[in-house]
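DM from R.C. (forwarded with permission)

"hey, sorry to bug you on a friday — could you get me a structure for this? deadline for the figure draft is monday and I only need the backbone to look sensible"
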Amino acid sequence: MIKKDSLFKSKHFVSLPGKDGMLCDLSQDRHPTQVYAWGYDRKNLTVNVEGTSFGFVYSDRASITVTISDRQQTFDLDTGMYFSVPNSFSISGGCGFIISRLGYKGIFSLGGPIEKQGRLLYIDGCSDSLLIPPVIQGDPCLNYLHFPPSIGQTRHTHPSLRVGIVAKGRGRCIVPSNEDGTGSDVTIPLTPGNIFIIPTDGHHSFFTDDSEMDVIAYHPDSDTGPTHNDHPMINRTIVGGISAANIQEIRTTKISV
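My reply, with the result:
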């Protein structure tokens, strides 16, 4: 659990308290987002939003109750599992964090648990996996980032906010002391269960020593993923040796609501 006196806040990095309920309201961000946690106090939470929530079970077993086809259904989730749920739901048992992307209609899904390392090559010896991908290019996504021991990451920024939780292991984040990215280094320890936000364009780098570290990271937007003109179904539909993506007269022009 994060102690109150260990919280850190700057333009580059914000650590959040380990407690149940809403931890941060970023509904005025250009990608409206709210951050929640459960299990740090009461081990249960109800989320009522018009949007889609992405969540991760940090420890123990949780049960999530959702409404599907006008019927309530409950699913069990073990440590390391993750989910995407449109609109309202409740979760009990276990411990973890939830990020709600307001105004976004996602797809209900459950997955996991996370693997021992990522499937994709990242930077500086790290790897990552896309746990919940964007349904359409530009949509939010949930990612898993693995840091082996003895990692020294290159300082970098992101063009939109990031919300993360330390799923396993230990490390540290180093940020500059000045808002413009200059100044002396400031070190923030990272331990299991720590929840944090990296604001848009925040300068940061992650390090590990003798321990590996796993981080689950929410991105509110994406620049990859399927588009109406480029996705497996349309690309791999062949008519007379030609992909349907290139035959405009047979292309669907509108999806009926």
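R.C.: lifesaver. The longest strand covers residues 51-59.
me: no worries. The chain has one helix and 22 strands.
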